[in-house]
Amino acid sequence: MDWGMRNRLAQLVQRDGHCLFLPVDHGYFQGPTHKLEEPRKTIEPLLPYADALFITRGVLRSSVDADKSKPVILRVSGGASVIGKDLSNEGLAASMEEAIRLNVSAVGLSVFVGSEYERESLLNLAKLVDEGERYGIPVMAVTAVGKELEKREARYLALCCRIAAELGARIVKTYWCENFDRVVRGCPVPVVMAGGPQVDSELEVLEFVYDGMQRGAIGVNLGRNVWQNDHPVAMIKALRAIIHENATPREAQELFNSLKGQPVAAG
Question: Which member of 35, 41, 70, 173 is catalytic?
Fold first, then answer.
């Protein structure tokens, strides 16, 4: 692996081998998502506690100060919206030249295995990997499921993750599920967790994150479970305790409870 590739991966994955990525890219297909209507206000108080941002180029330029940023994973797929015919009909929406211009640590795109546009999305990944390897920029593949929630099970997600790794992704983002170790075991590159099932409490989020870490994930890429929480800073600190300090869910919950009433410092 070339020095540049190793260096960029080291910016993302911390010395303990773990990572906490904060995705704020939801607007690229959802528009002004709840609690992400003004991205800067959402991002600034959380930025000190994230290891990297997963973000589009437009929001990066408009809402993140260049002198205060964390490593960036640039969202480079797009072209479909929640009101369009098919969310899986994505293309490459930003070039590797743009990624270099923005000095990012990685690029990320969605793949839609099992959808009408499976082939196109997987070939998008292959093309992006070719360009990323040429310039020393790692590619993160996102195993997208969308509204088909029944697909969030180990057999399907293991298939998606393995295909993404086979095509050259350096990191794979996928959903937590029951028997998550089956997903990780079949994927020869690091796996980070997206959201899990719909849950009703912070403890349930902390529990599935803890379970996933115990089963081999290197970290998380959690957005709405953080910034849509009524106490987002307390929530991201609780997640950091599990990911980087080996806290149990109960210990992380106690930390969350102790922090949630505290004022949030300005970014």
Answer: 173
pLDDT digit string, tens, across residues 151-207: 789 999 999 999 999 999 999 999 999 999 999 999 999 999 997 666 789 999 999
Does residue 173 carry a catalytic annotation? yes
The DSSP line for the chain is --HHHHHHHHHHS-TTS-EEEEE--THHHHSS-TT-SSHHHHHTTTGGG-SEEEE-HHHHHHHS-TTS---EEEE-EE---TTSS-TT--EE-S-HHHHHHTT-SEEEEEE-TTSTTHHHHHHHHHHHHHHHHHHT--EEEEE--TT-GGG-SHHHHHHHHHHHHHTT-SEEEE---TTHHHHHHT-SS-EEE---S--SSHHHHHHHHHHHHHTT--EEE-SHHHHTSSSHHHHHHHHHHHHHH---HHHHHHHHHHHTTSPPPP-
| CATH code reported for the domain at 3-223 | 3.20.20.70
At 64-105, the pLDDT tens digits run 999 988 999 999 999 999 999 999 999 999 999 999 999 999
